[in-house]
Request: fold
Amino acid sequence: MNTQDFTGLILSWFRLNAGKLVWLLIMFVAAVIADRVLRRVVRKIIDNSQVPIPSASIFINLIRVVIWCLAVGMVLQPVFGINPATLVTALGVGGVALSFGLKDTIANVVGGFGLMMGHVIRPGDQVTIQGVTGAVVDITWRHTVVETRGGDRMVIPNSVLNTASLTKLTAASESTVTMPFTVKGGADPDEVSRDMLRRVQESASGLLLPDNPPLVKFTGFSPYGTEGVVMLFVRDGVFLSTAKDRAARAIATADYLVSDGGASEAVTEDAPHSAANTAE
Reply:
């Protein structure tokens, strides 16, 4: 077969299948346009909706799957001569075997829909999962992405989220840092509170929320003195440990705090009394 015959054969094939090719091209272009337009429209509707609908890529992906499945279904019979009903039947039989191999993926997809439709978590929520605290960035087909304050992103399978212990936090509780302390006996609690707040605000003011000033709470008593905590409310993007370190350095030199040496002396002083009581 020479080049002229081969070219004629190709042209003949194109003439015979021109209608099918045009229909295939039309459906492909229509699917691409519908995909882009509906993604933008649905995302805008969800973002501007007053109804608490979670905005996550899982819904956008669902719309894309529906669009392309419809497009494929409309070209099967006219272009490829495949009856869609026959294909659905074949997929139904093969789907049983396929589901065993994809059971983890199916569990993650179902888990993702359960999390979203049940409003368990949404993008933007502050959560603690298996000891890791952060903000939910997105919920996809298979996993949920949680970003910590340090910028680290933890990818958690949706099936794990449905079985793991999960705590939803408020913005205030997520930003709270507590620093315990012990004050010597006889110290005035009001004087201690004022001095601690002054020291902390001078040292860590740039790290704390302006509308939530630090607090000093006294929580009880011990053999060494009065116990309490300093509560700090940290800005977004600031490590909690950084704010805690800054506050600890600010009050470390206060003379009303019980040091380890003081505690050791108290234990030593109690020891003879304990020994005497034992002897009695």
